[in-house]
Structure formats: structure tokens, C-alpha cells
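INFO  loader      accepted 1 record
INFO  loader      residues=139
INFO  predictor   begin
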Amino acid sequence: MLLHIVARGKIGGSPEAELVERYLKRIAWPSKVTELGERTPLQPLPANCISIVLDERGPALSSTDLARKLEGWRDAGKREVRFLIGGADGHTEAERTNADLLLSFGPATWPHLLVRAMLAEQLFRATSILANHPYHRDG
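INFO  predictor   done
INFO  writer      dumping C-alpha cells
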């Protein structure tokens, strides 16, 4: 199952970009990042895929809960999980309404560059949990 981060704005050669790349390289699952301009429309979600919008209105999941969601979607034969990171103005109401899940990293507003790095780390952590890798420690 493809883990696809779709983010508004360009990250360039920043330290955050290096951190995102470092975590994505460690994930055993296929992954990719697509950057969009602030006003570029989203491509329609292919059939049999999941859309997750990162938004402070959604629930904050533990790393283990995120891992279990990924596991369920993988085991159900989903082809792709698309994680949408908004730009300066966040997401449209339609993007939030059409999402399969709203996901929050807490009530604070985070810079989109940091959200990419945080998401990449959580995806590595979640896939590590599912692989019984010692990276994640409960407690």
C-alpha cells in the first residue's frame, strides 16, 4: 500500500526536507511526496484509496492507533493512503468533508514544513510497530 503525502507549498532543500527524506527512506512500504501550489486543485482520489486530511479539527491518534488504521486499510486491500497537508489557509470545507479521516497533531497550529517531518516520522513509527521493530517503545 502506497503512503502518499500531498502537501501544499514547496519544501526545497531545507533541513525539514532532509528530515522528511530520512524518515521516508527508512519506511519499508512504498511512499512518495507530491508538492502542490497553494491554489493547485487536488487530483481526484483513485478508486480503492483512503484520503486523510491533516487538520486540527480531527482526532489526535496515538502512534499505535495510526498503525492499526494503516494495518486495517492494508489488509482490506486499499491501494493508497493519501495524507493531505494544507498550506497557509489550511483546507477547504470540501476537502475536509470528502476525507475518510481528519487527523490532528494536537490543537496547535504547526508550520506545514514541520508537519511533513512529523508525519513522515509517524509513518515510519507506525510501519515499525506493524513490523515489530524495536523503534517504538510504549510507555
